[in-house]
Amino acid sequence: MEGNIPAYYSDVSLRLFNVLDKVGLREDIRWKRINMMLLRNELASLDSKFPRQIFGSQAEATTTPGLQSDIDILAYIPSINVRQSIQSLETSVFSYIMVSDAHTPPGYVKLQWMVGYSPLPVFNLECNNHILDALGRSVLCSRNFFQNNQSERHGPADRKVINKSLSMDFVTALRVRSWPCQASQWEKRNINYPSQANIFLIKETGALLVPVGHPLSPESHLEWRISISYGEKLLVWQFNSTQYKCYVSLKMIKKYFVKPICGEKALSSYHCKTCVFYALQSTPSSLWQPENLLLCVELCLRTLCQWVKSGYCPNYFIPEENMFDGKVYGHIQVQLLAVLHDLLRQEGRYLLRLLCDDIGPRLARLCQTSLFDSVYQVQDGVESIGFSIYILAGSIQTAHKSLACRDLGNKIGLVKKLCCTQKTIQTVLEMLCSSSLGSDLASQCLAQALIDPERLDIAHELLTFGRSSDVTSGRLKLAAFYLMQDKFVMAENVLHQIQENYTYHVIDYNTYPTKETLCDILEKNLSTAEFVRQFIALPVCYFQSEIHCMPKALILKMFLSRGSHIIDACPSQCACVDPKVFLHYLEYQCYFRLGKTSHKMAALDNMLWVLFNKHLEYRDSALSLLASCLMQEGMYTNAWKVLCISMWLQNECNAAMWQIAFLINDAFKLLRLRQ
């Protein structure tokens, strides 16, 4: 075969390897993104009934900005017990046993309802979602399992569209802790790949049962697909640079050459991943080097071509399952075969027409000259980690709101628990919880007629420790604490420090980072926890236990705003405010007490500008704070307008209606004094 390889393959492979580095597939970027997703998964599982994991391209870091891969989130239900054999069932416990028959396709099972060693009959079919199969067994129906009626159904997933180029797929599955019997021969097939250590790790992860049946089965509504997603993710993480870039290159080729002609379902990323797994199993490891990248891509294309020709794509773990069933047949099979044959005939020249992330133009320029063009150096593709940062920042905020909404004893226990977890988790969340705990203690002290200095000192220590949690959240709570104690100069110093740290690189937790921010992060080579502290501005969340450390407007919002799905994202018993708005509010209050009129009005102007020119997650909180400042200034007409805007955005269950009542009361008092 080596005699048929064009002489330029080695040179083009090295150049392609270099170009892929420039679009965000460098090893350091790859592992930063993987670590961010691991952190996100751990944050999501700290306080969740259904453990959630990100799978697919985002978790594997096998995507680029041009591929625009969706986010695949899978949650499994730990309370449902699934076993593979009767012997492993527990007595007097409701369980499911994986069963199959002559009509069940390979790679799929049914779940028979059992108690102890005995099958259960069917009662109330509509409520318990159980149906009798052809053999009279009571099995769990997979159709519409845990379906969210507000989302679009996409196979077994509920799809939520975020914007034109991004969507999230949520899948609810069941977990099987043991290795599936149908995949028992997988270990025996492997000689060179993967290693025995990886085989052991993969078998320990078990499998998932996804609620989707075989597309050609008459009992597809009763079948569950066996998915070894954990094992696949581990295998992809073990790819070396060439294997990793070969897989991403196949995905780019699939998207830009196959999809426009054959449609979206003909060839999927999962088919490409399976092809790489089989190629690694059948070739020596010495082949997978940077100078052979193009050769490895074409080897995989030839394998795909053979599968399409035979109409059979074997699952990597369960080869008896044909993953082309219901997808590649008839004219689609003919078109797909023609496209793959055409690509192979071109001997790599198709890469010059690959527009994904400008791979073709970049490669063409690189093949013409040995020097990099300055225009392409600017477009480094570092934004490929941007979405991982976006997801992680939102996960940290969600975890903080979920974990901090507890009583004092549970908060103390949580901080102790975090000290025993992964170091990154400790540094990110421990400080956030420390701020919440310090504010909780301070609130209890300030509520008492006789203040306990020792407890107040402890609260101050906790708030001081938590000030470096991120750019804003911890420091803003500390500044609010100083204001409550009339320590205005100390509050001013903290607020000034926040302003200094709030550079144009800082992003809010719900904002996609800019290219400049990402370049700054990569140049500094920061750890995940460190870039959170330097670049992410989390909003401030107050809970009922912190009532004496928060502004009155937020207290009203906490107790009176409910069902605020249009303009607010706060959970019940919680009041949140965007960081920029709260920063300018505290500046106003501080300068008001210090008598600095010009500074005070500048803070008010900044607050107005942010409120009406920036996207805010908690707009009604911002409007409430602005209205309270205007009332404090005696600008009742302007305050009335702001509160009317808030009521127009949400006319029910809005704390603004109480502020309107207070405003009218103050206005009448003022009229009486003037008379």
Written account of the structure:
- This protein has 675 residues and is of the alpha+beta class.
- Helix content is 52%, strand content 11%.
- Strands 1, 2, 3, 4, 5, 6, 9, 10, 11, 12 and 13 form an eleven-stranded mixed β-sheet that branches.
- A hairpin with a 2-residue loop joins strand 5 (108-115) and strand 6 (118-119).
- InterPro entries: Mab-21_HhH/H2TH-like (IPR046906), MAB21L/cGLR (IPR024810).
- It comes from Sinanodonta woodiana.
- This is Mab-21-like HhH/H2TH-like domain-containing protein.
- It holds the Pfam family Mab-21_C.
The CATH topology name of the largest domain reads: Poly(a)-polymerase, middle domain
Q: What CATH first level of the largest domain would be assigned?
A: Mainly Alpha
| Low-pLDDT segments, ≥5 res | 369-381, 418-422, 561-571
Strand content: 5-15%
Distance between the termini: 102 Å
The helix count comes to: 27
Tell me which CATH architecture of the largest domain applies here: Orthogonal Bundle
- The coarse silhouette is globular
Q: Provide the structure class.
A: alpha+beta
Radius of gyration, taken over Cα atoms and rounded to an integer in Å = 29 Å
Helix % is 40-55%
Largest pleated sheet: 11 strands, mixed
Protein name: Mab-21-like HhH/H2TH-like domain-containing protein
